[in-house]
Amino acid sequence: xxxxxxxxxxxxxxxxLSIILAITVPTIIGIxxxxxxxxxxxxxxxxxxxxxxxxxxxxxxxPEVINKDNIYELLGLSNANYTNISIYIEDxxxxxxxxxKGKWNGLIACGTYKDIKVVKSTKDCNNDITPPVIxxxxxNPFNMYAGDSYSDAGA
Length: 155
Known about the structure:
Blueprint: H1 7-57, H2 71-75, E1 82-90, E2 93-100, E3 108-111, E4 117-119, E5 133-136, E6 142-145
Antiparallel strand pairs: 1-2, 2-3, 3-4, 5-6
């Protein structure tokens, strides 16, 4: 009597293992992506918390001047993993937009400390501070900004 596995038994084991891998790999990748997003969110919240502490120390401090190039000088935080940092104040609450690089590559954090979210595109951020512009073309081109009114002289 021979001891060993037949070819069919080996193929069956390989099929079972591939089914297990097909089920678990996407789950593990999802867990890793969620963990990365949560870590980036915590990093962005850390920047906002540093802004709050700086405001406590210096009431005249303007967080809107913070950017990637001066974040270390102003807050003592590294800029190694950021492509862009912008903070603006709305209703006396700082809102942040951070574009990540390196370990945060492809991620964007935007919002306030309480409602920050991590997305893959700035289009998914609802804190766009750029007002809409309508450009009227013709003999007299005209840019119309939010809140402007326009009446055609020939009408």
